[in-house]
Amino acid sequence: MTAIFKFDGLLLILLLLICTCTYVRAQFPALLDRNKHGFLGAFWKMARVGERLSPYVALACLAMAIKILLHK
Question: For a disulfide at 47, which of 1, 21, 38, 68, Cβ 3.0-4.6 Å?
């Protein structure tokens, strides 16, 4: 099965997208700020979530990393 059909894989993809969008917006703000609506607006929203909830996103990434390391 692909990662999207497993809850853990879906959560990992979501966390990676949030972290990546936040990093891209920090480095190149104009790239995501001009696309606030439509399909590409989802990436802008993920960047905003990463900025505003960064402690919780960091804890979720840490918990996912520990889970992955201890799972195998």
Answer: 21
Q: Residues 50-72: pLDDT tens digits?
A: 989 989 999 999 998 898 899 86
Q: Is residue 2 a part of any domain in this protein?
A: no
Whether 1 is in a domain gets the answer no
What is the extent of the structural domain holding 38?
7-71
CB-CB contact of 33 with 44 (8 Å)? yes
**Helix axis angle, 41-52 to 54-71, nearest 10°:** 90
d(CA 32, CA 29): 6
pTM: 0.81
